[in-house]
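Feature request disguised as a bug report, sorry. It would help if multi-protein outputs had a clear separator. Right now it looks like this:
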Amino acid sequence: MRVAIVQPSYIPWRGFFDMIRSVDLLLFFDDVQYTRRDWRNRNRIKTAAGPRWLTIPVHRHAREEIIRNIAICYEPDWRAEHLNLLCVWYGKTPFYERYTSRFADILATRPESLCELDIALTRWLMEELGIATAVERTSRLPVTGAKTDRLLALLGRVGATDYLSGPAAKDYIDPDAFRRAGVGLCYKRYDYAAYPQPWGDFLDFMSVLDLLFNTGPDAPSYLRNLIGDERVVPARSPAFVR
């Protein structure tokens, strides 16, 4: 079984969903330290002036607080601002009406925690993209250890034979530990075809909402990586291919 472990993020870019569709099980890493000015509470949309951030304000918290304990601040009402900006910059795109109502409905539920909102939106976006990967949260799989040891403990709990990691994790993952544990290790690489966009030259790394508003039901075809992922440690079973 191939597994990915990712931190919950706000309306992530398409590479996030390519990773999800490439595995059998996604674990949301919700019990690690929250990092400020990161993807947990913000993402970017394309405007005529270039990328613009949509940011969710959160309540003050200890520096060491974990992601699942971060509370959303609803005053002032950032939800109206986000919806208005999407209308201004995507209101004339071919599929804006198809997706904006459901997005607004999820925001209207006013979940207390950032984690709950991020996961609810990700599950909805998975549905829209035709991704049926199973999902679980690491906080429901308590294990001990740090860095590579903790990753391997989590992977052992779910019976993983292969781990798909983001490339940034190369700085702390120990491939030899994966070899000793008999678990495959592969790093995701990102290279995708451009898709139709308004406002000048194509910009990648926007929120996946940009992809959906512009391409609608064709969006899944733009999730396919043009290059292979980087295999570091062979998997015990044949590599998972979707």
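(second protein starts here, but nothing in the output says so)
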Amino acid sequence: MLDASQQWQLFGFDMRNLGRYWQQAWAEFLWGDQSPLRPRLDEVVLLESESGSEYYQAGRSVQPTATDCQALLLPDDLVLFKRLRVPVAAEAELAAVVALEVSSSSPFLADDTGYGWTRIGRDEQHIHLQLAIVSLSASMRYIGRVYDIHDLQARELWARSEGEPIVIQGFGETKRLQRYKRRLLRISALLGLCALALLGMLSLAAGSSYIEMRYYNALNESVSAQARDAANMRAALLDANETIRVVNEISATYPSPHVELAKLTHLLGDDAYIVQYLQQGEGLRIRGRAIDAASVVQKLTSAPGYAEVNSPQAITAVGNTGLQQFSLNIQLKAGADS
């Protein structure tokens, strides 16, 4: 079974430290010894030693030039050099690894220990570092004796191993690094302003295109709405014509119940009335009551416009009301004028 901590491992990297890897990559790009920006933005440093003077910029030797930055080179007998090989997976923790190595390897007291380090190479699995450890008191005695300087921040303090300069931390390099940081901030601000200007121009162009697009969209919607209205009116007109045609066909095929009801009302008179009326096409089915139901049936049978009149049920008396109930099926004459 895998350890729970290994669930976050990918190619040897702890993915929980992804933010630190990102931060370390940016720090190396801006501040590292191999940074492409340091040779252009960092200041030239005049390195003085007992053997003469040299000029360096971003750790590389350059031609003599006017500069305000000065550094002093410690002799090798005052420096403890040590090579470190750190796994690539620990790249985000290089500063902590170096500090731990210094605390475990320094022969000097903790308060008297100074150090610096630089990258000298890397391979697929390891990062190779050169570490320089010094005694602060011994270094200051040397600087005071040789250069008559007693201010810790007056000069930078360097060591050199196999031609690679190493800046000892805690001396005058802070001023140079602060100026380098201010240059980075100014360039970042300038790039930000350029990006904002570019974004503004793109936004202006996009806004103009958006306004034009909205105009054409509105015009298209207006034309489409007019076309839809015309199509709807045409469809409504067709529906109305179809409705009129169907109504005319129905009116021609089936008699109007109002007309038939009016005719029955006239034929029945005041002595009879209809209880139920049903009309399906040219067929009528009625049920009514009258004082003399037989005379009513006789009258309807002889009425013009009726092709056939028959009684599906016998005439029956309605209780003690003195009325008689009759039922008739009537078939209208086809094409007859009701």
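Even a blank line would do. Unrelated, but nice: The mean pLDDT is 84.
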